[in-house]
User: Fold this.
Amino acid sequence: PTVTWKPDWSEIFRGETVTLRCEIRGGAEWTYEWRINDQDYPASSESISITADSGRFGCIGTRNDESTQWSDFNSLPVCKSATNKARATMTERQTIIPAGGSVTLRCSVDIGDGWRIYWFRQDPDQPVEISEPDGVFIISDEGVYSCRGGRGGRGGPVFYTETSREVTIWKTVSIKPTITWKHNWPPIFSGETVTLRCEIRGGGSQWMYEWEINDRNSPSFDEYKNISARNGDRFRCRGRGNYQFTQWSDDLSLTVTRLSVNLLITILVVILLSILHNTIILIFTYFY
Assistant:
């Protein structure tokens, strides 16, 4: 006889379920006997399921008063990995879904063959997609994704790889913030403090805020931001929350007036004239 097994993967992990088959050519109505890890299983069927390990196995057939020879004793190609686990690896080129678009995730298994890929979003126990190995998963929903390989099933247990690292995918929504600013008087002088506000309308989310000054991140999570006015500075903002980003606002540039000596003298003269004018009115009112 010849012993074959299914699945006939190139590497099998301890604990996987494998079905052995004793093939005898010539005649029929054989009764099969198995010897697995030095333990006999008489009056068995042509096929027997075992849990994979490094042991040896063989079979013999009998009928009436005759019997075959024992088959060669073989062992399964059991993986010698110390962890007895294959590893799933996820790769991605983008982690932010553009407005109305999608991103592509890929998942592969480092050892063995016959794997199917189980994809998870948020819940690590409930797959949202099952695909073939080295396939792709095109997504348009934000969240935390991971993957792992699995093989077997079809009435038997599924043997899983280790789970990949988690990848956080953000989604850009079509909301666009607007920057407004508050100041006590129209001219803004260099160095003055101005309060900017990032206004987001719609979305129904508790937004956190990101600010950029001259295309550089400016740490702040508040809707309002106090800045020291400088000519030529550009500001923009966006919101983020629940794995979503708004679009960036349009750039805001403030018109800043430099406080020259002549302008300072003019302002002082205006202030002094105002004080003098009020003083004259008070004196006139007092005496008349």
